[in-house]
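Q: Hi! First time asking for a complex rather than a single chain. Here are the components, and I think there are two in total. Is that enough to go on?
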Amino acid sequence: MKKPTFSPLFLLICKKAVFYIATYFVALSLIFLIIRLMPGNPVEQLVARLVAGRHSGQTFVGVDKLYWQFITEFGLDRPILDQFYVYMQNMLTFNFGVSISAYPSSVIAIITGSLPWSFLVLFPSIIVGFVVGNYLGAVAASKKGILDNVVFNTSLLLSNVPYYCLAFIMRYIFAFLYPLFPIGQGYSLGHAGFSLTPEWIVDYLHHYALPFLSLVLINVGGQAIGMRVMMIYELNSDYYVYSKQLGLSEGKLTNYAYRNAMLPQITGLALSFGTIFGGSLITEIVFNYPGIGLTLYQAILEQDYPLIQGCFAMITLTTLLANFLMDILYAFIDPRIKAVYSGEKK
Amino acid sequence: MGILLFFVLLAGIAPWFTPDPKAMTVARWNPPSLERLLGTDLFGRDVFSLFVNGLSMSLIIGVLAGLIATFVGVAIGAVAGYRGGIVDEILMSATNVMLVIPALALLIVLAAFLKMRNEFLMSAIIGFTSWPWTARSIRSQTLSLKSREFIELSKMSGLSEIRIVFQDVLPNMFSYVFMCFALQMANGILSETALSMVGLGPTDVVTLGQMLRWALLWETVRLGYWWVFVPVTVAVTLITTSLLLINTGMDEMFNPRMRKL
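A: Yes, that's all I need. Here is the structure of the assembled complex.
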């Protein structure tokens, strides 16, 4: 048995983990600060809403009592540091409280109900967009000529269309002018909930197509442009020219260049993940697709602060987790980092 | 460049000649005609008039948010890059933390807790959440400038650090700062539109995002009233694209190595 030593790679992962955990803390603290520093009293609003919700037949006698009950329930009469401690404890245990707009259900239940819908659109579209975009960009850069022109200009246009604009246009063209796809929502009426019958899956995919496509198109555009620039850079680099003169086969050369150009692309993807996630939230709203974006939208319309807060925490957590995974993946892919951290290179 | 100029002129001049955007008429959902260039909406308001007014407001917010973000980003990036050491470490970890927190989600929470939102407040919160990109790139620019001879010379002649940063470092990357501003302005317009679309925009003025919000709420896509949302989507796309093209164009102009590509 070898003595259990910590490999440098493991330490790198730990370092990254600490950074992301700290970031999550900062994000949560920011929200705490925002809520506390904002003018206006959320409890007042909450009570007002609850009272307004009680229609005729009930008396308003207990308003004052209700107010103070909430104050103690939320711990607002305690010192600020105590409040912060309780808040953090709740946030870290996913105890986001009770939704105001969907009163009896807890915030976390609503979020876990919508999160899978988002993930099913988000991650496949990123992966497909990344693969297709990189392939197109690389081909465009190495083939040059008309193909390059077409790919470059289309990608430039696509990557610059804001998410919501593309969603609007796609929805108008493919669901209204040419009704190939349903105009919104995640499933037909009467097909609610997850089930794995063939009809349900077909129905699901049918609704899935447009939001998915509009996200993929934008990702493809952005990736293709980045890849093209990186590829051109690699194709003009000394090692490439030298190897070419040595007579290496075209395929092998392109492969080398491709692998080198790939690395910055992955970093780019990791950094832009937050933006892509944000874009997918907006896309969901336009397509009325029942993911976390739509939940957030409805929470805003209903002024459901606990739900907004919970959505923010989950979105941030997802983004940070994805970034963390990407960093680890990067360490494994990049031969330089791998060599340094696994001790091959001293 | 031309595209941007066109929209700026349109936003600057057209509102003087169009009817009051808030005036409601009985002509609801009229398609575009010569009299009403972009038709009317649910309340019979003139969409073209709303559009040009919204356009100017969106451009203003974009410029303001861009200015704030660029200013904060440049200040943090330049100080971090120039001072180095522990200051750099602290500022850059703050930047990295802000960079990975999803800006849009943070913006939504910020805006949701603000009761009254006017265009200046909007620009401020957008600006203060989008500076990290600028800070990062300005820092690396500063690092590369820092070791040049003329900076050394200024140092030897005993100028204060603040003076060196503001008189020697920043003017030498003015073009670069402007490029950052173009990007930030595009980002500002995009953020404003996204925020307004979910109903968290400025509360008392018309913006492009506000128009998209109405388009969404009234299910105009389902009804096929294209004149309500097509002009807005096209305008936002073209403006942000032209800003990005200005950015890359300047990049090529100032960076001869890129020009060859």
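A: DSSP finds 13 helices and no strands in chain A. Let me know if you'd like any chain examined more closely.
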